[in-house]
């Protein structure tokens, strides 16, 4: 934080929700893809997007002032380096994430944060009477947006994860709560001798075929639907849990780990991929993801020692933490 003008800085932070919603609208309309590589007139973009020209111009100029787009003298807009990250073909696209976080059902949970802090209840459940997984199973269109957000976010982490850790020593990698399989597909693509099992809720894995096919790994990857509180597939020598445990409180996270413990072999490795909460005053991303978990899922981000305790309670020993150069760390554990 600059600290140069505290009043202006607080104003910027306080109004951050407006920027977030404006980016959500631009992402939902696919503005970054419509802009492409050339500066374009905002009325042309409005015609292509099928929206009100005057209102779109005001949205784009506000986001240009926020640094997402660049506006030139005659109402033509282009993408800045920040805006490029909204493109669907960007290496590290944030477009699907922006589309997800601004959805009205997410937004209304954040609108209830005060209640959450006053009572300790999870705002999402208070507002919707269900957890996000139940809610999305009843609203498949929201489930599809969420799964795309996970795949988009994973793109940012997968290459770094595959580069940071030697998966070639494994015969069979089981990705528990693996979504549409973006991480597992990258692991299998990098290591032709490794087989995979993608495990997630039946309605989620039903959408995984395209990701596995595009990576050319469908013939080496079994897809299994189920409930990780009850069981996980047997026979892996590595079990991945990427950004799964942070969705759950300690009792639920322990139950997921205990299910893994029941099915992992004595020589197996458990790889938990998560953000680690940093010391005081550092790492806005992890601490706001923690607030996200408090508001939406009822889970939490954790520090290394908290993972060590959770793992030990479920019969695992934390052996090592590998940094990936992204906010996600690889926490390696073995059954005890
Ligand atoms: C935050 S997402 C992470 C997805 C993926 N690992 C990634 O990093 O992109 C959590 C995943 O847990 C899955 N999940 C939630 N409840 C589950 C359950 N009871 N059994 C199996 N999977 C579940 C969700 O469907 C979702 O794909």
Automatic annotation (TrEMBL):
One of its GO terms (molecular function) is protein dimerization activity. The active site is at 246 (proton acceptor). The keyword Protein transport does not apply. Keywords: Methyltransferase, S-adenosyl-L-methionine, Transferase. One of its GO terms (biological process) is methylation. Residues 11-86 form the O-methyltransferase dimerisation domain. PROSITE patterns: SAM_OMT_II. InterPro entries: COMT-like (IPR016461), COMT_C (IPR001077), COMT_dimerisation (IPR012967), SAM-dependent_MTases_sf (IPR029063), WH-like_DNA-bd_sf (IPR036388), WH_DNA-bd_sf (IPR036390). This is Methyltransferase. PANTHER family: O-METHYLTRANSFERASE CICE (PTHR43712:SF2), PUTATIVE (AFU_ORTHOLOGUE AFUA_4G14580)-RELATED (PTHR43712). The keyword Metal-binding does not apply. It comes from Dankookia rubra. Residues 110-317 form the O-methyltransferase C-terminal domain. It comes from the Bacteria.
């Amino acid at each position: 934080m600059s600290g140069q003008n505290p009043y202006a800085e607080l104003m910027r932070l306080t109004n951050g929700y407006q920027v977030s919603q404006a980016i959500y609208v631009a992402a939902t309309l696919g503005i970054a893809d419509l802009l492409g590589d050339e500066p374009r007139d905002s009325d042309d973009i409005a015609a292509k997007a099928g929206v009100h020209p005057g209102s779109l111009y005001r949205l784009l100029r506000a986001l240009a002032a926020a640094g997402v787009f660049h506006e030139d003298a005659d109402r033509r807009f282009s993408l800045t380096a920040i805006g490029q990250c909204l493109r669907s073909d960007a290496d590290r696209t944030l477009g699907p994430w922006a589309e997800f976080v601004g959805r009205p059902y997410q937004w209304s949970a954040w609108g209830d944060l005060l209640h959450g802090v006053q009572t300790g209840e999870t705002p999402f459940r208070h507002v919707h009477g269900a957890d996000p997984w139940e809610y999305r199973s009843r609203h498949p269109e929201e489930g599809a947006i969420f799964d795309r957000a996970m795949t988009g976010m994973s793109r940012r982490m997968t290459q770094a994860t595959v580069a940071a850790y030697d998966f070639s020593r494994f015969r069979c990698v089981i990705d528990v709560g693996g979504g549409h399989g973006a991480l597992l597909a990258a692991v299998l693509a990098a290591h032709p001798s490794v087989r995979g099992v993608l495990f997630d809720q039946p309605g989620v894995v039903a959408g995984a075929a395209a990701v596995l096919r595009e990576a050319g790994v469908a013939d080496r990857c079994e897809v299994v639907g189920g409930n990780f509180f009850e069981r996980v597939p047997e026979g892996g020598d590595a079990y991945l849990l990427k950004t799964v445990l942070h969705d759950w409180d300690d009792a639920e996270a322990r139950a997921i780990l205990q299910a893994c413990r029941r099915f992992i072999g004595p020589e197996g490795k458990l790889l938990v991929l998560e953000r680690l909460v940093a010391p005081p005053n550092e790492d806005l991303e992890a601490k706001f993801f923690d607030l996200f978990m408090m508001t939406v899922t009822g889970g939490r981000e954790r520090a290394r020692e908290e993972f060590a305790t959770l793992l030990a309670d479920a019969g695992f020993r934390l052996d090592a933490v590998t940094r990936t150069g992204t906010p996600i760390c690889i926490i390696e554990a073995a059954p005890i």
